Amino acid sequence: MYSSGGAEAESESESERNRMGDDKEEQGSSFKSWAKQTEESYQLQLALALRLSSHSASSSDHPSSSAQTLTHRFWVDGCLQYSDKIIDGFYLIHGMDVYTWTISTDLQNVGMIPSFESLMSIEPSDDLSILVVAVDKSRDPGLRELQNRVASLSNNWITTKDATDQLANLVCNRMGGGSLTEENLGTRWKECTQLLKSCLHSVILPIGSLPIGLCVHRALLFKVLADLINLPCRIAKGCKYCRKDVGASCIVQFGSDRWKCFH
User: Fold this and answer.
1) How far is CA 62 from CA 33, 110, 112, 140, 245, in A?
2) Whose CA is closest to 42, among 96, 92, 93?
3) Domain EDR1/CTR1/ARMC3-like peptidase-like spans what residues (predicted)?
4) What is the residue extent of each domain of the chain?
5) CATH 3.10.620 given to domain 63-95+134-263
6) Residues 70, 220 contacting (CB under 8 angstroms)
C-alpha cells in the first residue's frame, strides 16, 4: 500500500513538473514572438527614418525655422505654450518614432525633423502607419473658410468664457462631434484618414479637411483658431478622456490665476 501511494505521488509530481515545463516553454515562445515583433518594428522604423533623412538632405525647401521649431517641439513633447503661435508650415507627424529618427540621421545636415518635402514623397500605399496633419491656410481652403468664419463671429464674443465655449463647440462639431467611446472615435478616425489619403494621393492631410479628429487634432485646431483671435491658450500633453499617447488638451487662461481646460 505504501509503495503504491509513493508511486502515485511520484507520478503526480512528474505531471506537475511537465505542466510547469510546458508553461515555461509557452512563456518563452511568447517572449520570443514579442521580441521578434519589436525587432521587426524597429527595423521598419529605422529604414523609414533613413529613407526620409535621405529625402530631407536632398531637399532645398523647408518650412520656416519657427514653424519647424514648433513642429519639432510638439513632436517631442506634445506641448505648446501660451506664447507659441501655430503658423503656416506647422505639421504633426504620426507613425514615426522620434528616437528612431534622431539616432538614424545627421541632424546638422538633415534637420531635427523629417522635412515636409520628404513626407510628401511617401506614397500612401508605401507605409500605412505614416500620417501627417498640416497647418497651412494657403493650401487648405477648409482652414481658410474656418478662420474667416471665426474672425467674423468673434466680434460678438464679449467674454473669454464665451469665446472659449464658442470655439470649443465649433471645433467639436467640425471634427465629428462628441463620441461615446475612445474606441468608436478611433475607428471613425482610421476609416476617415484611409479615405482621405486615397482621395488626396498623399499621407499629408490638411487640418481643415478632417471631418473627424482625435483629441490632439481638436486641440491643435482649437489653438490655431484661438491664436487668430488672441485667446490665450496652450496645449498640454494628456487627456482624461483618452488613454492614447497622443492625447492632448487645451488650457485657456482667464485672467491671471484662472484656467479652463478643453479636451
Assistant:
1) 41, 10, 12, 18, 28
2) 96
3) 67-258
4) 1-58+97-129, 63-95+134-263
5) yes
6) no
- Provide CB contacts within 8 A for 93, sequence distance 6+: 71, 75, 113, 114, 119, 130, 131, 132
Is the separation of the CB atoms in 254 and 161 below 8 Å?
yes
- 121: CB partners within 8 A, 6+ apart: 55
CA distance 75 to 261: 21
Per-residue pLDDT 10s for the chain (263 aa) are: 444 455 444 555 555 555 555 555 555 566 556 665 555 555 555 555 555 445 444 444 444 458 888 998 888 888 899 999 999 999 999 988 777 777 766 656 556 788 888 888 888 876 568 899 999 999 999 999 999 999 999 999 989 889 999 999 999 999 988 766 667 888 888 899 999 999 999 999 999 999 999 889 999 999 999 999 999 999 988 776 666 666 788 889 887 665 666 65
